[in-house]
Amino acid sequence: MRKRVRKLVKTYRLENLSCTNCAAKFEKNIRSLPDIKKVDLNFGASKLTVDGDVSIEELERAGAFDHIRVYPEKARVEHTPIYKRRQTIETAISFLLLIAGVILSFQTSEGDPWAIGLFGGSMLIGGYHMFRTGLMNLSRFEFDMKTLMTIAVIGAAIIGEWREGAVVVFLFAISEALESFSMNKARQSIRGLMDLAPARALIQRGGELLEMDTEEVRIGDVLIVKPGQKIAMDGVVLRGKSAVNQAAITGESIPEVKTPGADVFAGTMNEEGALEVTVTKRVEDTTIAKIIHLVEEAQAEKAPSQKFVDQFAKYYTPAIIGIAFLVALVPGYLTGDWQLWVYQGLAVLVVGCPCALVVSTPVAIVTAIGNAARQGVLIKGGIHLEETGRINAVAFDKTGTLTKGYPEMTDAIPEKGYTKQQLVQLAASAEAMSQHPLARAIGKEAPHILPSEGFQSITGKGAYAEVEGQRIHIGSLLWAEEFGLQIPAHGHKLQQSGKSVMAVFTKESLIGILAVADAVRTESPGIIQKLKEMGIGSTIMLTGDHPATANAIAAEIGVTDVRAGLMPQDKLSAVRELQQQYGRVAMVGDGINDAPALAASTVGIAMGGAGTDAALETADIALMADDLEKLPYTIRLSRKTLRIIKENIMFALGLKVIALLLIIPGWLTLWIAIFADMGATLLVILNALRLVKVQK
């Protein structure tokens, strides 16, 4: 008998994971535990996946150096307010001892034993965890931020700079607390998404109403959703009618009316009526679950800028340690003033902490992707975010992207003796029994349908039926001409503009002309104009439609280049040609028949990601609400992210260079050094958090 293998892959949520160096160290510590096969730590999403037999207590011990807390994935994490955290309390006590020491040292001297005692107490309480980690790292020759700080503070105490050492420890503790707070703020978007879908659902099963965890709900169960409740599972409305606010999924605040047969999504809000919903997906497969998973994966993927920074930091830290030793030893040996230059060397170590540089890119990427998800735009990685900010041209599919994707009646021109209303009513009544999309488009415009009989469809020509005692024909202009009827010039002109034109007539006379077309989205011309204003002058339409239709629509909305009559493989070739011509090209399509072109483009952007697996899987970016208005927002957000990343790298390095230049006149002090490091870290985090404010 085969032995059953117990599944040991578990996912956890993390708290207090504030720096990439600490995340790397935490991951390394877990790898060293026994029975661990694989570890995957997602810093951006603050998420840990472990393959191995390990307890939460063991994981927390592995992260004890940074107070990392571990929770099961499904647990609703209650985040401790910043003022209640042990780290904050220790920092507050350290500050009080520091103030007491400063007051006493000014009244007596910095060398007063009581003042030294107060400074020492402040350093030990505020920096205990830092010293423990730093000394452990030092014994292993691992040089991270805490190692550098430990060397600097111990060195300051050895040369008698107790006051400055205590100030450095306090400022470092403040910096750590604020960094942790800021990273948690950046991750709030994911946490908000996770809290959207209810954990429990009211299910009607076997004639009974049962309240259960969403994990226990099965496909085919009937979910009961009361007014004012969130919908717990994806499904199809079985009974009831209600307005549902889908902002959580699509970013659109206007509720959508749901009737039997309509799709509903977990995490959306039922506003007014009761609904009975047939569950179609398990809890782990719902649209909101897929969005959360894809956003987390996106935040884990390193953008090109981050890869560069990580690589740079590898060489930067050893270089700083080397410079610090040279500053301490060479001028000290030449001048004999060892105390001054050892002090300057220690200050260089503090300035050199790479924290601000390392965090400069991920905090911007995490914030931008989280903000986009809240606005109903799913960006599947930092690389796609950066590439979107650099695109030079945008190619669009026509049907369902620039147009509505279904026919609408655009023109109704009656002949003498008839009104527009009579023309539409007679045409709709004659085609009342037809299932043709053009017939449905005309039927929508009719005030009411007259009784008809004897409906007959004639392939390639049209249809007719008896309406109010006369035979009404509706069909092609050629068919009307076969009856000897004269077609007015405007009928042919509408046909030349790419519309489907129909004549409505009896055997004896023409009643009027109707034109139907795949109507342009009302927002399309404005979107093309916004792209031009943003500097994207090249907009291209790729369509399988007839060139006359494509050119007419392109002229209406302002697209600069039209390529019509294309099969899916032709669209792929067109995208490759455009890339040779323009460099980086984005392709916007519906995610199914445009899949080859979306995959080949620099950035593939799918319309209508909500509930559409193909769109979520194929494209690099999905516009969840099928809303083209979100395209300029996405490009603007991407460009701002690129700009902020560049600014952050400049801030991180610039402040350190300025601080290091203070060595020349001998003005660099430990507290200036820690201010330069802390200032740079806070500056890059606060600068990145500006991305939260970018709105559609």
TrEMBL record:
Q: Signal peptide span per the entry?
A: none
Cellular location of this protein? Answer: Cell membrane; Membrane
Answer whether the UniProt record assigns the keyword Plastid to this protein. no
Q: Does the keyword Phosphoprotein apply?
A: yes
InterPro entries reported in the protein's UniProt record: ATPase_P-typ_cyto_dom_N (IPR023299), ATPase_P-typ_P_site (IPR018303), ATPase_P-typ_TM_dom_sf (IPR023298), ATPase_P-typ_transduc_dom_A_sf (IPR008250), ATPase_P-type_domA (IPR059000), Cation_Transport_ATPase_IB (IPR051014), HAD-like_sf (IPR036412), HAD_sf (IPR023214)
Describe the reaction catalysed, as an equation.
Cd(2+)(in) + ATP + H2O = Cd(2+)(out) + ADP + phosphate + H(+)
Q: Which UniProt keywords apply?
A: ATP-binding, Cadmium, Cell membrane, Ion transport, Membrane, Metal-binding, Nucleotide-binding, Phosphoprotein, Translocase, Transmembrane, Transmembrane helix, Transport
This protein's name: Cd(2+)-exporting ATPase
Which species is the source of this protein? Metaplanococcus flavidus
